[in-house]
């Protein structure tokens, strides 16, 4: 009787996992991993100091990155999931919008490689624009971005951003006058 009960319980557990769509030991999805970036970051690139802010928008279905290098206009990059890919649209300070995506991804990857799909907003066919991005996550408080830019002569250059999560400010407790 005990053996039958054990087999029944195991079968019930397996069925509940299948019905819920949960795989034991399953890693976080690639987009869920990106959501952990929410907050403020600071660091450097070839131009000097950099600051970035990540915010969940659209009911948590998109991640907005606000990125500003020293003496440069702010740029916005929107990240979203599309099945087993991550899509981005980069709203560049030059006025164009490169759209990139990853290859098929699964689990909580430590590196995301984006390649160009198309560019909108270009004034001419040979206008400079971003053509690639690699995000690397050495740990939860560090992020590396490697942006690839193609200039109007077709030459590609890279700019490496090293970012560190800013510590959260402790809440200030004001004593009451009572």
Task: Write structural notes for this entry.
It is a single chain. The protein has 178 residues and is mostly beta strands. Strands 1-2-3-4-5-6-7-8-9-10 form a 10-stranded antiparallel β-barrel. It has one domain: Calycin beta-barrel core domain (Lipocalin, Beta Barrel), CATH 2.40.128. About 12% of the residues have low confidence. The longest helix has 19 residues. The chain starts with a helix and ends in a 13-residue tail after the last strand. It is 14% helix and 48% strand. It is globular. Strand 7 and strand 8 form a beta hairpin.
H/E element sequence: HHEEEEEEEEEE
> Strands across the major sheet, in which order?
1-2-3-4-5-6-7-8-9-10
The CATH topology turns out to be Lipocalin
Which CATH class is shown? Mainly Beta
Number of contiguous helices: 2
Q: At the fourth CATH level, what is the homologous superfamily?
A: Calycin beta-barrel core domain
How many domains in all?
1
Unreliably modeled segments: 5-25
Rounded to an integer in angstroms, the radius of gyration calculated over CA atoms is 22 Å
Question: How many E-type strands?
Answer: 10
In terms of topology, how is this protein built?
Layout: H1 2-20, H2 30-35, E1 39-45, E2 48-57, E3 62-69, E4 75-82, E5 85-91, E6 97-102, E7 111-120, E8 129-139, E9 142-150, E10 156-165
Antiparallel strand pairs: 1-2, 1-10, 2-3, 3-4, 4-5, 5-6, 6-7, 7-8, 8-9, 9-10
């Amino acid at each position: 009787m005990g053996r039958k009960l054990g087999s029944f319980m195991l079968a019930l557990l397996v069925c509940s996992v299948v019905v819920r769509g949960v795989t034991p030991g399953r890693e976080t999805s690639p987009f869920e991993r990106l959501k952990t970036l929410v907050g403020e970051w600071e660091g450097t690139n070839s131009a000097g100091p950099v600051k970035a802010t990540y915010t969940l928008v659209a009911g948590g279905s998109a991640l907005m990155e606000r990125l500003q290098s020293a003496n440069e206009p702010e740029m916005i990059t929107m990240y979203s999931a599309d099945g087993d890919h991550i899509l981005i649209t980069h709203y560049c300070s030059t006025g164009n919008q490169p759209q990139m995506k990853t290859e098929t991804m699964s689990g909580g990857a430590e590196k995301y490689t984006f390649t160009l799909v198309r560019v909108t907003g270009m004034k001419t066919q040979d206008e400079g624009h971003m053509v690639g991005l690699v995000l690397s996550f050495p740990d939860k408080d560090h992020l590396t971005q490697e942006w690839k830019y193609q200039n109007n002569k077709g030459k590609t250059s890279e700019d490496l951003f090293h970012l560190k999560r800013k510590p959260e400010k402790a809440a200030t407790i004001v004593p009451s006058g009572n």
